[in-house]
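Question:
When you can, review this sequence-structure pair and walk me through the tokens.
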Amino acid sequence: MIQLRQVDKIYSTAAGPFHALRAVDLSVATGEVFGIIGRSGAGKSTLLRLLNLLEHPSRGEVLIENQNIAEFDAASLRQLRQRIGVVFQHFNLLGSRTVYENVRFPLRVAGELNPVAQRDRVHAMLELVGLSDQVHKYPRQLSGGQRQRVGIARALANRPTLLLCDEATSALDPETTQSILALLRSINQRLQLTIVLITHGMDVIRAVADRLAVLDHGQVIESGSVIDVFLSPRHATTRALLAESGIETGALEVASSVGAARLLRLTYRGEAVATPLLSELTRELGVDFVILQGSIGRIKDVPYAELTVAVALHDTARWQQLCAALEQRAIRYQVLR
């Protein structure tokens, strides 16, 4: 669906050229949810704006469905933008228009449907986002979550093939955020819609995305499936962004107090999460574990577990047996000390 090839974005400033993006390579498959994560100033919003050519690349190619959109004329660019929906952080609704008119607005601009077809499309979109009973209200009469649902309905009105979400949940409370993320998951599955979302929170990526790219100072420093990046981050910035990664400083102190020779991080996923892993290893190998830290959850639809354990093993042969047993069970392990 999308390919970025060696894309740079350079701004001219009083202090000289500013590189917002440097040699960015990434691809987004049709029908997937792709997350872009990074700190403020990493280049996320600039990258997103390249996808509908609100920003032009300084170098490189931006391809959508194998077409270099930087070469489009004005008419082709208008058609492209009608196939791309955008959901904004602060909703960007027309305060003087009703919910109905806000969702109808892009249909009026496109001018492709007659009034009856526009009405039917608006009602279908509002039903999709669960707001059929809010048609005649104004944005000021709605909650933050409801306003964002109107924004999503408006973004979907022209039946786009690509949906761009610009920090779509940053202005919402945690409970409302979860409801909006559930809605995006449902839309992705029901409409087979490609979604690209930017965020600074890994919880958002973990809940909805299939793959992700991590941006830092305008560069893609890590990318891959969400579960692989989440459970085995390679870059220091990625590890810092993942609240569930790393060890609390107290873990090393506890490990010393129990006389552990080694400190391990174990990560596993899928059906293995439901197995009594440590109990089995203790029975088989006679090895005792001390659990120092752990988390169990889901990344999109895949269950995972991550444990930091101390193990008092000084015998080389038994250590090798433990490593072999972990590998046999497809348990990833990292020796932390």
